[in-house]
Amino acid sequence: MKRALTIAGGIIILAAIFLSEKGYNIVVPVSQNGDILPVLKQKSGDTINVFSQFDFTKDDWVAYIVIPSSDFVDLNSQIPHRTCLKTTDRNLMQKMKREWRFKITQGDVATVESVFYLLKNGKTVFRSGIVLDAHNQVLQNSVYGEMMPVDKNAMINTCREFRNVYWPVVVF
């Protein structure tokens, strides 16, 4: 029995490593919500900067993009086909703060499966669905609904700089 469990454990570990090398991770977002800043009242057609109230020069910041394999089919070719992408680069986050401006449509993209997480000191301060398709980029969350980027290249240009995560299991 002990030998069977050892063999099964070894197979599971090898499978996890193999899948991780192929771009698949198991992602477990368990972080608590941190000090999420108050939402400014907006209406359809308004242009907003969702990161304007964040100071990326202080504290410990990390951003993740979690992409299910079902989104790989239409994923923009500049974005790595990985389940989990990550950045801790403060300059990249400052670039997001400057360039990610969105027009609120208050629409709804029914099939948003990929998720963008922003963590400050290990706690989630921003979470949104994200679409990074070849012809369509969108952020969508329960506060603003669908948000279309003002600059259609800004999201792709930033997200392509996120780094691949190679750990088989990613917990944040």
Q: Could you give a short description of this structure?
A:
With 172 residues, the protein is α+β, with helices and mostly antiparallel strands. It contains 3 helices and 11 strands.
What is the first-to-last residue Cα distance?
34 Å
Quickly count the domains.
1
Q: How many strand units? A: 11
Alpha carbon gyration radius: 18 Å
Total helical elements: 3
Q: Average pLDDT across residues?
A: 86
Name some characteristics of this structure.
single chain, 172 residues, alpha+beta, nine-stranded antiparallel β-sheet, two-stranded parallel sheet, 3 helices
Description:
By secondary structure, this protein is α+β, with helices and mostly antiparallel strands. The chain has one domain. It is 21% helix and 28% strand. The strands form two sheets. Strands 2-5-9-8-7-6-3-4-10 form a nine-stranded antiparallel beta sheet. Strands 1-11 form a two-stranded parallel ribbon. Strand 8 and strand 9 form a beta hairpin. It is globular. The mean pLDDT is 86.
In terms of topology, how is this protein built?
Elements: H1 2-21, E1 26-28, E2 47-48, E3 61-66, E4 84-87, H2 90-99, E5 102-104, E6 115-120, E7 123-132, E8 137-141, E9 145-149, H3 154-159, E10 163-164, E11 169-171
Parallel strand pairs: 1-11
Antiparallel strand pairs: 2-5, 3-4, 3-6, 4-10, 5-9, 6-7, 7-8, 8-9
